[in-house]
Amino acid sequence: MGPLKILLSLLLAFLTLARNLPAQSASPTLFAQSAVKILERDFPKTNASFLLLDASAGILLAHHWKDYEKPIPLGSLVKPFTALAYASAHNFKYPKLECKGKAGACWQDRPHGTLDLTSAISVSCNAYFRQLAQSVSAEQIAQVAHDFHIESPGENSESQTFAGLGDRWQISPLRMAQAYVELQRRKDHPGVSEILQGMRQSALRGTGISVGHHLTHTKALVKTGTAPCTHIPWAPADGFTLVLLPADAPEIVLLVREHSVTGAAAAELVGKLLRQMEQ
Ligand SMILES: [Zn+2]
Hints:
Elements: H1 3-18, H2 30-42, E1 48-54, E2 60-64, E3 72-73, H3 79-89, E4 97-99, E5 113-115, H4 117-123, H5 126-133, H6 138-147, H7 159-162, E6 170-171, H8 173-185, H9 193-205, H10 209-214, E7 221-227, E8 238-245, E9 252-259, H11 263-278
Helix pairs in contact: 1-2, 3-6, 4-9
The structure holds zinc ion.
Zinc ion binds at residues 99, 106, 108, 112, 125-127.
């Protein structure tokens, strides 16, 4: 049993536990049983939702997410698709753009400085994507959305919507997770490698660093997002973290939503979860 298969079975065990359902496997391994004990102890009540997919076929393996097909705002998880819309109209070349931090309406007060697309994905720079999105039309976004089977934000959307801000662009969480499966599947297509490289960098030193920090044996591809909360009771934001594991040949996609935190904070929960699994 390879480490990824063990990781997968442990994730399944945890998610089964999280749903309060009987274990699907008739005889879970001792390893899985001890992991369940760890998770029972360390994750008694998270404000989190999960979707776990097979990264080769995009099949939903397990979930703890009410209404996972209902479109909701997913924040910066849309950025790779806006990037592709830009690329398709600009000879598959991405620009370098400057982030002036708060002055450029970035989420980070301190300027990110001059970024290429890979770095902008890694740190999820709003200023970069606001500027990039100004050169993207609603039709180009709609085309990419169609290609990746995700909902389109609509004809009258503004560039800030394409940058993943606000609540206008609503996408089914399951479709979004499957869109990342498709993105990975197209890793050799023009414009895609820069995005996947950015997701790899995110886990090392970007908004997904909490995932990379907790993993000792496995490299991950990560994208985080922060979006207006859709829960009752309401919170200022929900954090999203999408992880493809392992980075070189992904076998699983894990999408996590945590209530009332940022995407970077949700990555901390995911990192801790994955570390428990790895051990
Ligand atoms: Zn920035």
